[in-house]
Design goal:
Pfam families: Plasmodium_Vir. It comes from Plasmodium vivax (malaria parasite P. vivax). This is VIR protein. The structure is a single chain. By secondary structure, the chain is mainly alpha-helical. Among the domains are: 1-123, no CATH class; 125-213, no CATH class. It has twelve helices and two strands. It has a two-stranded antiparallel ribbon with strand order 1-2. Helix 4 packs antiparallel against helix 5, helix 4 runs parallel beside helix 6 and helix 11 (227-251) packs across helix 12. The radius of gyration is 52 Å and the shape is rod-shaped. The mean pLDDT is 84.
């Protein structure tokens, strides 16, 4: 899987612009310009300082989002440009560079300088590795939020972190030999160093991150019916059932079947009632006959009153 393309990231884009050609006209307006003319390689120095002036200006016009990092980039670029010269010339060039740094100020910020010149410029191989570490940390921070876009972006971020961790580990193994070299010396800030690798090279568990999101998907809420809705539903159901039966009776063969069933039921009921009435009548007649035969008459004879 391909990971983050460093060529499309701000550090690489800005670094490419630092070497673009530019006019020397603005440099000629500075007070230091007269001192440059004494050097045999005047034109080369003129070109470097003109680019330096332009590069600091880029921080104001186009790259103000991370000015401290951009200033470190410009200082590193200038150090690389002058490191091939003798110590005497490097000190002189650094003096000119300091004047250029002091000349470029933020607009409407009480004449505050955009950048400061490194007090202790580093021309060793360690400086190159530090520059790469600085670039890596900026790319890491700029792309950190992408892990929340989707799982694929999260995996790309992890792949980049792993690749850079392996690269810097290899560089330290091959080039940093104690006691002359210490991991603590490779530090940009607390979040960007080669001795605290857990912070500098964080690993994201993309499976857990996106599994958690799936588990946290909202569960559909089943709305409970109110008593009024339930009552309305029951009434409507009865009406629909009645209409359905009526339809079957009027317009389908089921109606004739139901009618025959009702007639048969009525006939059976009528026959049962007739039998019951006959039995009841017979019972009443038998009772009267028996009573008439067994009835006793009591006659009291009394003396006549005088």
């Amino acid at each position: 899987m391909s990971d983050i393309d460093e060529n499309k990231q701000i550090p690489h884009i800005f670094n490419k612009r630092l070497d673009e050609s530019t006019s020397t006209s603005k440099l000629k307006g500075l007070s230091i310009y007269s001192g440059i003319s004494i050097w045999d390689d005047k034109e080369e120095i003129e070109e470097i300082l003109s680019k330096l002036l332009r590069n600091i200006g880029l921080i104001i016009s186009e790259y103000s989002g991370n000015p401290k990092k951009r200033c470190r980039d410009v200082n590193h670029w200038f150090n690389e440009k002058i490191k091939a010269y003798s110590d005497i010339k490097r000190r002189s060039f650094s003096g000119y560079a300091t004047a250029v740094f002091n000349a470029v100020k933020w607009p409407r910020e009480n004449e505050k300088k955009v950048c400061d010149r490194d007090k202790n410029p580093n021309f060793s191989e360690k400086a190159k590795l530090m520059k790469k570490l600085d670039d890596y940390c900026e790319i890491r921070d700029n792309n950190g939020c992408n892990v929340l876009k989707n799982k694929n972006e999260c995996l790309k971020f992890n792949s980049y972190i792993k690749r850079k961790k392996e690269y810097f580990s290899g560089q330290i193994t091959n080039n940093c030999n104690p006691p002359d070299c210490k991991l603590e010396d490779y530090k940009i800030d607390e979040n960007c160093s080669l001795y605290n690798t857990d912070i500098t090279f964080p690993e994201i568990n993309c499976d857990v991150l996106y599994k958690k999101e799936v588990l946290q998907e909202p569960v559909p809420v089943i709305k409970e019916r109110s008593p009024l809705e339930i009552g309305f539903f029951i009434i409507v159901s009865f009406i629909l059932f009645y209409l359905f039966i009526l339809f079957l009776e009027k317009f389908t063969p089921v109606g004739s079947i139901l009618n025959r069933f009702r007639r048969r039921k009525y006939d059976i009921k009528r026959n049962i009632e007739r039998v019951f009435d006959d039995k009841h009548s017979l019972y009443n007649s038998d009772t009267i006959t028996a009573d008439s035969e067994n009835k006793r008459y009591y006659i009291e004879y009394a003396r006549p009153h005088n």
